[in-house]
């Protein structure tokens, strides 16, 4: 028997507070009636008979006398079926594309099912993005968590759309591949941009979208990535599909988390974020992976903007601890009209070594990746020296490194947001760049590989 409470104590920000509540459960969904309007909320705090709940549709128009609350005894669940592909939903899983409601025999808890570490399968095989800097130097492995660290004003929006449009499983086996895309706190214009790009490329039928806009209630931001990951879990582990989850922007999610924590009067931690930010992010990131008992996989590509381009900020800092590498975007490269502006030196993919090379990509892939990192790192040292003594006074070999650096940035990293490169094409461009240098400088590549691919 469900009880209905005919008034609330107060409404503050995205929260409502009730007193005299018995047997409430943390995370329980409540139904809120404001006059003739129905809203949903979730219990987020319990102290004896005192309960705080966040309201997904916001608390505007609520008062202590015109609001009634019914406790459902259930967690937050959404309906999911195979028909979600090609559809668009809001941050609480309601259709917003005019396609009508989604009918399903089952409903799924958006808080997910923890993956037992013993049941995890080690990620293998790579996902091709068509972007040379990522495919060759920061290879995205199926089942990996690889975040993209961006900054305000950098083209991460365009990069996200490019990855969604171009990503595919690169293997000979017959596999089903789809993308779950979640946008958190974006403007209406950005939301329209993503949908337009997906429709232009024809990938829209293979994408399920969860859109949370900047003018939506802040409480909805917390559920948006969880809805997307729940859809991914269904498609991967019940429909045996390989799913790439792209979430932008995780910083908006964390800002929403901070706002709700402040409304709950919690003691703040670093930069005002709640002390449980690490475990909360981990509850999202760790839902990605592969299971030994299932054919499908979930690969997670979260995108976040670093406030003031500070990589030590709590959001990128904690994300780096949980995930298996990062792709860092460079403001300097972006200012030089190099797109996508991937700064390869502070970027890495910790799992790429086990998913590239012979049998996965091409036998020269590991060697050329190591050599490009090494040679480009030396370019930075020589550029610093050139600022002191001038480029004309550099040695002949240093001038070749400067030429290599310019070619590497202009032809390898720079490719625009519309170009989709095959892996072999990206590797060949890498060899053209390395062939600017003498063979003696290629100390990270086996001699037999040099003889086969080096271009005089």
Automatic annotation (TrEMBL):
Transmembrane segments: none annotated. Pfam families: ATP-synt_ab (PF00006), ATP-synt_ab_N (PF02874), ATP-synt_VA_C (PF22919). InterPro entries: ATP-synt_VA_C (IPR055190), ATPase_a/bsu_AS (IPR020003), ATPase_F1/V1/A1_a/bsu_N (IPR004100), ATPase_F1/V1/A1_a/bsu_N_sf (IPR036121), ATPase_F1/V1/A1_a/bsu_nucl-bd (IPR000194), P-loop_NTPase (IPR027417), V-ATPase_su_B/beta (IPR022879). Residues 354-454 form the ATP synthase A/B type C-terminal domain. Keywords: ATP synthesis, Hydrogen ion transport, Ion transport, Transport. Signal peptide: none annotated. Residues 10-73 form the ATPase F1/V1/A1 complex alpha/beta subunit N-terminal domain. GO terms for biological process: proton motive force-driven plasma membrane ATP synthesis. The keyword 4Fe-4S does not apply. Residues 130-349 form the ATPase F1/V1/A1 complex alpha/beta subunit nucleotide-binding domain. GO terms for cellular component: proton-transporting ATP synthase complex. The keyword Ion transport applies. GO terms for molecular function: ATP binding; proton-transporting ATP synthase activity, rotational mechanism; proton-transporting ATPase activity, rotational mechanism. PROSITE patterns: ATPASE_ALPHA_BETA (PS00152). Produces ATP from ADP in the presence of a proton gradient across the membrane. The V-type beta chain is a regulatory subunit. Belongs to the ATPase alpha/beta chains family. This is V-type ATP synthase beta chain. The gene is atpB.
């Amino acid at each position: 028997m469900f009880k209905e409470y005919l008034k609330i104590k107060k409404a503050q920000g995205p929260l409502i507070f009730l007193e005299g509540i018995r047997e409430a459960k943390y995370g329980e969904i409540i139904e809120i009636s404001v006059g003739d309007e129905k809203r949903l909320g979730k219990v987020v705090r319990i102290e004896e008979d005192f309960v705080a709940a966040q309201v997904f549709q916001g608390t505007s128009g609520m008062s202590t006398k015109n609001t009634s609350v019914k406790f459902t005894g259930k967690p937050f669940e959404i309906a999911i079926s195979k028909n979600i592909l090609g559809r668009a939903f809001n941050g609480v899983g309601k259709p917003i594309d005019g396609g009508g409601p989604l009918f399903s025999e089952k409903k799924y808890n958006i808080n997910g099912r923890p993956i037992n570490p013993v049941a995890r399968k080690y990620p293998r095989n790579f996902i091709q993005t068509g972007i040379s800097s990522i495919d060759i130097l920061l290879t995205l492995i199926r089942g990996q968590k690889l975040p993209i660290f961006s900054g305000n004003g950098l083209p991460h929006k365009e990069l996200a759309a490019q990855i969604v449009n171009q990503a595919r499983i690169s293997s000979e086996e017959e596999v089903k591949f789809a993308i779950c895309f979640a946008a958190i706190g974006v403007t209406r214009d950005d939301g329209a941009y993503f949908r337009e790009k997906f429709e232009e490329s024809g990938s829209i039928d293979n994408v399920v979208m969860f859109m949370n806009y900047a003018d939506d209630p802040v409480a909805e931001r917390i559920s948006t990535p969880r809805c997307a990951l729940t859809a991914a879990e269904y498609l991967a582990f019940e429909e045996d599909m390989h799913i790439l989850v792209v979430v932008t922007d995780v910083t908006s999610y964390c800002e929403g988390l901070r706002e709700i924590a402040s409304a709950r009067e919690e003691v703040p931690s670093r930069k005002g974020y709640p002390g449980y930010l690490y475990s909360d992010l981990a509850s999202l990131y760790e839902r990605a992976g592969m299971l030994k008992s299932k054919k499908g996989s979930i690969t997670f590509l979260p995108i976040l903007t670093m406030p003031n381009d500070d990589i030590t900020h709590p959001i990128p800092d904690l994300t780096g601890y949980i995930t298996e590498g990062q792709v860092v975007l460079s403001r300097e490269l972006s200012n030089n009209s190099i797109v996508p502006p991937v700064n390869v030196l502070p970027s890495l993919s910790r799992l790429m070594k086990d998913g590239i090379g012979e049998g996965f990509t091409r036998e020269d892939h590991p060697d050329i990746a190591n050599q490009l990192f090494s040679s480009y790192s030396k370019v930075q040292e020589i550029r610093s020296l050139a600022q002191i003594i001038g480029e004309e006074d550099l040695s002949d070999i240093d001038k070749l490194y400067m030429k290599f650096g310019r070619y590497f940035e202009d032809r390898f990293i720079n490719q625009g947001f519309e170009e989709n490169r095959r892996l072999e094409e990206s590797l060949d461009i890498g060899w053209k760049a390395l062939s600017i240098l003498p063979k003696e400088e290629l100390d990270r590549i086996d001699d037999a590989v040099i003889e086969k691919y080096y271009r005089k």
